[in-house]
Amino acid sequence: MSKTSNLFDCVLFDLDGTLLDTSYDFSYALNLLCEQHQLTPPSYDRVRNTVSQGGAAVTALAFNPNDTDAFEQHRQAFLALYKQHIHLHTQIFPGLLAGLVHLAKVNMPWGIVTNKPQGLTEHLLEHFSFPSAPKTVICGDTLAVRKPHPEPMLLAASECGVDPKRCLYLGDHPRDIEAGINAGMQTGAVLFGYMPPEKMTNLDQADYVFRTPFDITQFLTKKANPLL
């Protein structure tokens, strides 16, 4: 599973497709919007494979992005519906909760670095109670730059009080691996997320590869060491 035995003192997660399975609520919101416009909604699988590209890409599965003004209205309507139903089906990926419990037991800081806007991120997270609270939540609009730029990653490490080299960043998109590498962190590629494995173009650059959430839990319970 790994090509290095380095330990770490902090675990950082991407949000959508890594920590939380948000795909059903994205699909549900788009279905509602399509229903309003009497359109046949795209399949759940198409939505799931697009979630990591953001709200505009999901909206474009059903509405023409070339019609700029109308498309922006559709995008805003989609985001409003998504926010309204943001926690209806979303859950921690099955098999991952035990890993979070372990991090709480060993008092290891963990956090979230996502490109999701702060308003949506905070609204989503307020519906979840984790075994220990994240020490940092860095969103797509927290800074002027976002992943794969290293600054959000470095800010997360700073807020956790850990050297970036001692951080493990887990994500399901090539930009997550790139962001972790840019920040000098250890990286874990998540293959159960929203990016088809064949599109993880920098998979060979990741330090670890995880095919299931349970793989992450097993890895954390064996590798994670509390701060001294």
UniProtKB/TrEMBL annotation:
Q: What high-level taxonomic lineage is stated for the organism? A: Bacteria, Pseudomonadati, Pseudomonadota, Gammaproteobacteria, Thiotrichales
Task: Name a single GO cellular component.
Answer: cytosol
Q: Does the keyword Magnesium apply?
A: yes
The identity of this protein, by name, is Haloacid dehalogenase
GO biological process: any one? DNA repair
Query: Is Nucleotidyltransferase found in the keyword set?
Result: no
Q: Which UniProt keywords apply?
A: Carbohydrate metabolism, Hydrolase, Magnesium, Metal-binding
Q: This protein's superkingdom? A: Bacteria
What Gene Ontology molecular function terms does this protein carry? metal ion binding; phosphoglycolate phosphatase activity
Q: Which organism is it from?
A: Thiomicrospira aerophila AL3
Give the matching NCBIfam families: HAD-SF-IA-v1, HAD-SF-IA-v3
